[in-house]
Design goal:
The protein is α/β, with parallel strands linked by helices. The protein contains 11 helices and 14 strands. The strands form 4 sheets. Strands 3-2-1-4-5-6-11 form a 7-stranded parallel beta sheet, sandwiched between helices. The longest helix has 22 residues, at 95-116.
Length: 340
């Protein structure tokens, strides 16, 4: 039996493949990716790291014929669904692209799975579904919604679609992994995060300043109600996040049918200034920065309660902030222009 990985050439997909094939070498995998935000080189490097070829089908999750054929021909029994668009700012200007790739794409995938009888799915959700949290740390029981941008709303809609599918198909199992802030890279420095344009997220922006691609970082606001006024987030090493997927895949059959939302975070928050200082210490590089206005839609603080992941997946993050920064820098230093 085979696991289909949609979006497997991307940042989180590529790291997950490395962890998964190291942990479960007997597993067959197949990647479907339209390469809209990634490079085939990432998958070649994953193959080098794990010492085996990985089949890539270049195609779109919205192409149902391709999907049904792949599911049938490869006897797929599980799907890890990473494919989608993820830039918050872009989603405000191009909402239809986001609803099409993320929501419609997930619908087509679910239709194909239903047609072929594949009933196990792991979905890439996000802490963004919690909107502005009322309590910290955020548990999975916290209310969702009140989301400020189309990207976040696509994740929220897809979670509801998955819940409805689980109600309609009693033996369908969906694990929705709500990621906090993935950062870092594989320790080899061979794979990592490679934003196509100006990075939207803090860590890749910092590494691009460090490597000389950007002159300086703007810190978005220092007047939040936090330890030093800057935003606090739960940064998680991408290899820990990857291990969370392997754990979820291993437990898909025992966890019980239905919809399971599970946070993947460390449970600890750091401010923007703490991240800058940790990165400077880990890399030996000075990060030039200035304080700017708040970014529209940002919240003050966000970090995860991770008891559910510990209980249901027997998983917890093991890598600290120093390792996140060291590995992010190692990747950026070795690949100043990403995969190109
Ligand atoms: P990424 O852009 O690096 O990877 C997504 C992959 O999906 C890319 O390889 C892209 O080419 C592919 N893709 C996009 N649309 C597709 C389509 N219609 N058909 C086929 N392939 C398509 O992003 P990532 O950081 O690896 O994120 C993976 C998933 O996790 C996404 O769904 C994202 O929304 C979610 N997520 C990411 C973060 C984060 O901070 N990186 C946080 C929470 C959730
Ligand atoms: C972190 C902190 C910023 C850039 C986003 C999405 C979320 C998820 C992860 C996909 C905040 C500050 C940032 C910069 C800064 N993605 N910052 N200067 O906003 O927590 O989450 O990515 O699902 O949905 O919303 O992450 O890395 O953008 O920001 O000061 O140039 O860094 O204000 O406090 P965020 P981020």
């Amino acid at each position: 039996m085979t696991t289909l990985i949609t979006g497997g050439c991307g940042y989180i997909g590529s790291h997950t493949l490395v962890n998964l094939l190291e942990q479960q070498p007997q597993r067959d995998v197949l990647v479907l990716d339209n390469l809209s935000n990634s490079s085939e080189t990432a998958l070649q490097r994953v193959s080098e790291l794990v010492g085996r070829p990985i089949e890539l089908v270049v195609g779109d999750i919205r192409d149902k014929d391709t999907l049904t054929r792949l599911l049938k021909q490869n006897q797929v029994d599980t799907v890890i669904h990473f494919a989608g668009l993820k830039a918050v700012g872009e989603s405000v200007n191009q909402p239809l692209d986001y609803y099409s790739n993320n929501v419609y794409g997930s619908l087509v995938l679910l239709e194909a799975m239903q047609e072929v009888g594949v009933n196990k799915l792991i979905f890439s959700s996000s802490a963004t579904v919690y909107g502005t949290p009322k309590q910290l740390p955020i548990t999975e029981q916290a209310p969702t919604g009140g989301i400020m941008n189309p990207y976040g709303r696509t994740k929220w809609h897809i979670e509801h679609i998955l819940q409805d599918v689980c109600t309609a198909i009693p033996d369908f199992t969906a694990i929705s992994l709500r990621y906090f802030n993935p950062v870092g890279a594989h320790s080899s420095g061979r794979i990592g995060e490679d934003p196509k344009d100006t990075p939207n997220n803090l860590m890749p922006y910092i590494t691009q300043v460090a490597v000389g691609r950007r002159p300086r970082l703007t810190v978005f606001g220092d007047d939040y109600d936090t330890i030093d006024g800057t935003g606090v987030r739960d940064y998680i090493h991408v290899m820990d996040l990857a291990a969370g997927h392997s754990a979820a895949l291993e437990r898909l059959s025992q966890i019980g049918a239905g919809f399971h939302a599970i946070n993947l975070g460390t449970g600890r928050g750091y401010s923007v200034l703490e991240i800058i200082r940790a990165f400077e210490a880990a890399s030996g590089q000075r990060i030039d920065y200035g304080i700017g206005p708040r970014r529209s839609g940002d919240i003050a603080s966000c970090y995860a309660a991770n008891d559910k992941a510990r209980q249901l997946l027997n998983w917890q993050a093991t890598r600290g902030l120093d390792e996140m920064c060291t590995d992010a820098w190692h990747w950026q230093q070795n690949n100043p222009n990403g995969y190109t």
